[in-house]
User: Which sequence fits this backbone?
């Protein structure tokens, strides 16, 4: 019988700080240490239950989350403590493990319950859990047991877990969700925040998810991580411009006049 984790009577966040230990870096020119935000001393503090990181593709958001997930004891390809069901054929492309070897963390207290969500590996994780549940049932599955869409399965999976104490890391969860499902996930995030027992660290391109009340919003640029408001993000600016005039926005973009997009 699996041993039930002891509940900790302290509120989130549990992971207080991560920082880069220069003495643990063998080669500064190697990836991911060559990323611009690692050039100087890197430190990331968590002072709220929910931290949201935004930034352009290629800035290193996913790699940073992989490193934090590895520190928390999760598989850097996605999953939770004790689950390693995903395909590791791309393991050489993932650098979270090498990053975590050079990171130090301050916990109060150390907590490794929860889940690391990666959109690209969620289907294999969900399939693994479904098959494990079928083994427990010992008979035919109930109706629609395996018929949930990716988005439905995502929401169902985390709705069942959001009342459990833990640290949850999401890498671009909106990629699994339609706009209406993003609204449902926003409610789920708010529920996790209000519970006081969940710490969430999330990277996203969705202005809707960035707007979560009480979350700490950080923008990752070449200069590093800096606090930002929703209104200061390019994501919201571009979204507003599109919503104000969809046809005009698309026409201008296709003409190549919007070089900053």
Assistant:
């Amino acid at each position: 019988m699996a041993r039930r984790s002891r509940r900790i009577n302290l509120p989130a966040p549990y992971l207080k700080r991560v920082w880069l230990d220069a003495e643990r870096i063998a080669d500064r020119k190697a990836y991911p240490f060559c990323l611009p935000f690692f050039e100087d001393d890197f430190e990331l503090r968590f002072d709220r239950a929910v931290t949201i990181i935004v930034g352009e593709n290629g800035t290193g958001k996913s790699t940073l989350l992989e490193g934090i997930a590895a520190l928390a004891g999760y598989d850097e390809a996605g999953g939770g403590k004790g689950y390693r069901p995903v395909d590791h054929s791309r393991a050489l492309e993932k650098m979270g493990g090498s990053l975590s070897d050079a990171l130090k963390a301050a916990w109060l207290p150390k907590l490794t319950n929860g889940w690391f969500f990666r959109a690209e590996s969620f289907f294999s994780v969900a399939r693994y859990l479904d098959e494990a549940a079928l083994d427990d049932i010992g008979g035919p599955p109930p109706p629609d047991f395996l018929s949930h869409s990716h988005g439905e399965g995502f929401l169902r999976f985390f709705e069942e877990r959001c009342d459990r104490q833990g640290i949850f890391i999401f890498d671009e969860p909106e990629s699994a969700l339609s706009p209406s499902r993003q609204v449902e996930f926003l409610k789920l995030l708010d529920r996790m925040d209000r519970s006081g027992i969940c710490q969430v660290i999330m990277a996203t391109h969705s202005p809707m998810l960035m707007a979560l009340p009480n979350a700490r919003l950080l923008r990752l640029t070449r200069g590093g991580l800096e606090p930002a408001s929703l209104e200061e993000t390019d994501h919201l600016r571009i979204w507003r411009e599109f919503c104000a005039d969809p046809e005009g926005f698309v026409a201008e973009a296709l003409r190549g006049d919007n070089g900053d997009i």
